[in-house]
Specification:
It comes from Idiomarina fontislapidosi. This protein specifically catalyzes the removal of signal peptides from prolipoproteins. The active site is at residues 124, 142. The chain crosses the membrane at residues 12-30, 71-88, 100-123, 135-154. Its main location: membrane. The chain is of the alpha+beta class. The protein has one domain. Helix content is 53%, strand content 14%. It is built from five helices and four strands; from the N terminus they run H-E-E-H-H-E-E-H-H. The protein has helices spanning 13-33, 68-90, 96-119, 140-157, 164-168, and strands spanning 39-43, 47-54, 122-130, 133-134. Strands 1-2-3-4 form a four-stranded antiparallel β-sheet. Strand 1 (39-43) and strand 2 (47-54) form a beta hairpin. Helix 2 runs antiparallel to helix 3. The longest helix has 24 residues, at 96-119. It is globular and about 50 Å long.
Amino acid sequence: MKPSKRASGLQYLWVTVAIFILDQLTKWWVAGDFELYESRIIIDGLFNLTYVHNYGAAFSFLSDGGGWQRWFFTVIAVAVSVVLLIWLRRNDVSFWRQNLSFSLILAGAIGNVTDRFLFGYVIDFLDVHYQGWHWPAFNVADCAITIGAVLMLLEAFIDNQRDPEDTQGKE
């Protein structure tokens, strides 16, 4: 008897590929069309496109580390990517929130690790500010990681694996 193949979360890799391509295209556009540190106002007093290099992690964490952090964050991103691929493979396709969150995080990790590998830094350009308060610049990959993490947290609070009928007789 031939074992049945179930549909896995790997079917969500199209999201990873699409977000990765969008991330890389926007970074290539910014790097090719802007001078380093050039800023263009999109919404006055709120949002600019500002081309910067981030040698650290999120919010420029460890950006002044002297270079070792490039490989440290690359290794972490590759390890996280491998774990996410394994989880996607093991997940049933029906766990859409979890699969989507993993795919988004994977896209962001691969997008930023591609920059680190090619350039030694991550290209950031989305610049949010308000009345003197300035959020560190970020990119499409960072957005994907953040949205994926939020979805993962929401998934932790939504038990979509348990059928209420299954638990009624077990109390």
